[in-house]
Every structure is written in C-alpha cells, then in structure tokens.
Amino acid sequence: MPRKFDLESYDTVESRIKKFYTDHPYGAILTELLSDPNNTDVAVVKATIIVSGDVVATGHAMEVRDKELSTSSYGKEYESVNYTAWLENAETSAIGRGLANYNYSGAKRPSREEMEKVERGSKGKEVPTMPSKRADGPPQPSGGKSQAFLTIVKAANHGIFGSKASVVMTDASTAEKNGQPEHLEAIIKEWKLADA
Predict the structure, then answer these.
(1) What is the DSSP letter of 103?
(2) What is the rounded distance in angstroms from the CA atom of residue 115 to the CA atom of residue 98?
(3) pLDDT tens digits along 176-192
(4) In the beta sheet, which residues pair with residue 85?
C-alpha cells in the first residue's frame, strides 16, 4: 500500500513558477528532453532556470510511461497520469526541482507533484536506463548554452523584445536545442543585439 503524505503541506510547481516570475519578470525557464524522443517508455527532462541572462539552477526528472490501465480501490480501471502524460509530468517535475534548487521550495523542498509520485509508488516497475548524452571533453560554460543564445536571453531579460519576447525566446530555444547557430545569429542581427 502506498505511503500517505499531507499533500497540502507541499507547494505546487505552479505556485513556484508564479513566485519566480513575480520576483524575476524577465527570467526564463527552459526545458529540454534528454531522453531519446523515439523511446516512448521513458521521459527524462532537464529544466534550466535563467535570471539576468545567467543560468542559476537546473533540475532533472524522469517519468516512466504506464503501459497498462490502473485499477482503483473500487475495482474500476482508469488512465493514470503517466498512462497519457508521462512527458508533461516529467517536465513539470523538472521545473519544480530546478526552482527548488534556486530556493523556490516553500516550507518543504519536494513539490506536491513529486510527493504524489511517491504516493503512487513504483508498483514494482522496472526502471529503464538511459545512455548518457554527455559530450567528450570538458563541460561547456553557462550550462552548455551557446554564447549567441545567452546574448538573446540577456536581451529578453532587459525587455528588448517587448510583447514579442515569448515568440523570440521560443524561436531561440528551438534553434539552440536543434544546434542551429546560424538561426541564433540571424535573431541577433535582426534585433541588433551585438551589444546586448
């Protein structure tokens, strides 16, 4: 039987996000899928917390997809959260852990979502392993983000993009993730960010 916790005594990830953006209106929370996107059995996500153009914290989370319907204590079958949304659940957990690492954790470090996961229990599931995606050589500065990307984040934190900040940051994040430095340079050129 899963262990019971007083879930109300844990902050939600949503409340942590609201607190973060209240304190850092131009901050950024970026997420990245680290596991193989073709592997639909497991999702490993990294969240990067950025303030004033600097990576201040990261968080990681893993969720395993439930392949079978769960059964309630009344004998009814239902779709658990990890039956349909294991990737979204991993992303939320990674954000919560990243924010906790930057001291947005309330009275208790784990988030309510993490404690719900503990309460669900592993149910004897085997946890798949994932090969490391670490590149050879020394780690890159600033959490592995390119200088061009950090220039764009810094500009966003200074309000340069105005109402287009969300669109520009999504575009830049996608280009960074997909290894498209020419696209990042095009954003820098378009917005004249050489000295941002």
Answers:
(1) T
(2) 16
(3) 888 888 888 888 888 88
(4) none
pLDDT digits (tens, 9 = 90+) for 21-66: 999 988 999 999 998 888 888 889 999 999 988 899 999 988 887 7
As given in the structure block, the two tokens for residue 42 are 């497991």
Residues in the chain: 196
Q: How far apart are CA 140 and CA 147, in angstroms?
A: 10
Tokens of 95: 């954000």
Name the residue among 127, 170, 130 with its Cα closest to residue 152.
170
> In this structure, how many other beta carbons lie within 10 angstroms of the beta carbon of residue 182?
8
With beta carbons less than 8 A apart as the criterion, state whether 19 and 65 touch: no
Interacting residues of 156 by C-beta distance below 8 A, sequence separation 6+ = 26, 28, 165, 168, 169
Closest listed residue to residue 147, CA positions, set 174, 184, 187: 184
Rounded to an integer, what distance in angstroms lies between the CA atom of residue 27 and that of residue 138?
A: 27
> 86: burial class by Cβ within 10 Å (0-12, 13-18, 19+)?
buried
- With 0-12 / 13-18 / 19 or more C-beta atoms within 10 angstroms meaning exposed / middle / buried, residue 70 is middle
State the residue for tokens 């969300």: 166
Which residues are 30's β-sheet partners? 48
**Do residues 152 and 30 make contact, with C-beta atoms less than 8 angstroms apart?**
no
